[in-house]
Design a protein that fits this description.
The chain has 270 residues and is α/β, with parallel strands linked by helices. A seven-stranded mixed sheet has the order 8-7-6-9-10-12-11. Helix 1 links the parallel strand 1 and strand 2. The longest helix is centred in the middle third of the chain and has 14 residues. It is globular, with a radius of gyration of 19 Å.
Length: 270
């Protein structure tokens, strides 16, 4: 997959992207294009010239996904730092995801649809270890870059030590091949079906929609059953869904936790 990477002249963050791409075997063809300044008019011209190619903008050393939307440029970057207060305060009373997953300091967790890693960070704050699996190579590159960046912050080291990122497709994931421990909880947050959002879609979700689609019926079944194979006999699968959406793969859960917007479908493995 070709990816155009824009970077202001004289900067060198592109080299780090190259190293991460090679180290984690993402198989991206990163094409470097220096620019004078990342002004919107310049970016709009470049985007229009590369409508079929994903584009990253390295701004202040941080990779941003960019796209042209209604005559404006939208930039989206991972920002794990923004979750600091949520992570510090995270608990079952404040975080619905923790109510659903009920992890503790010894729990082994797999997040099979990592996305930008925000749900994974909340789970990491309460569990023993978590593996984030992401099948899209561009999103995976952003995850690896963000973990590397945050590792320079000593306050984050303990949390990051719990997190392992793997570039793989959950529908084909093998614990044995990846030498992963069997999980107490597998968490899935597949892309929501079109038309299932009850509110305006955020910039983050708009960017994810450009790179990933909601699973079709066959993919949903593969995702569901492969996730179950990663659980021990007393483990559970937790799936995040829009409040009015059908269950993943049309499989009815054992129970649910939710609010007015989203719900978590919980499947016990016994």
């Amino acid at each position: 997959m070709q990816v155009l990477v824009l970077e202001q002249e004289g900067k060198t963050s592109f080299d780090k992207l190259i190293l991460l791409n090679q180290k984690h075997k993402l198989n991206l063809e990163l094409m470097h294009q220096p620019i004078t300044k990342p002004r919107d008019k310049i970016l709009q011209t470049i985007v229009k010239e590369h409508l079929d190619m994903p584009i990253l903008l390295l701004e202040k050393g941080i990779p941003h996904l960019i796209h042209h939307n209604e005559k404006t440029i939208t930039k989206t970057a991972l920002n794990w730092q923004s979750l600091t207060q949520r992570i510090v305060r995270a608990g079952r009373k404040s975080e619905l995801i923790l109510q659903a997953c009920k992890v503790d300091k010894d729990s082994v967790v797999i997040d099979g649809t990592a996305g930008f890693g925000y749900d994974g960070l909340i789970l990491a704050s309460a569990c023993g270890s978590i593996t984030l699996i992401e099948k899209n190579p561009i999103i995976a590159l952003l995850l690896f870059f963000e973990k590397y960046t945050m590792s320079q912050n000593t306050n984050w080291q303990k949390l990051l030590d719990k997190i392992n990122i793997i570039f793989d497709d959950m529908t084909q994931f093998s614990l044995m091949q990846k030498q992963q421990e069997i999980a107490d909880v597998v968490y899935l947050d597949p892309m929501f079906p079109k038309g299932s959002y009850q509110a305006k879609v955020s910039k983050t979700m708009q960017s994810l929609h450009l790179l990933a689609d909601a699973p079709n019926e066959k993919e949903a079944q593969m995702l569901f059953y492969q996730a179950k194979t990663c659980l021990h006999s007393q483990g559970k699968l937790v799936v995040k869904r829009p409040i009015y959406a059908k269950p993943l793969a049309n499989m009815l859960p054992n129970h649910q936790v939710g609010n007015d917007v989203i719900r978590f479908d919980i499947y016990q493995n016994n």
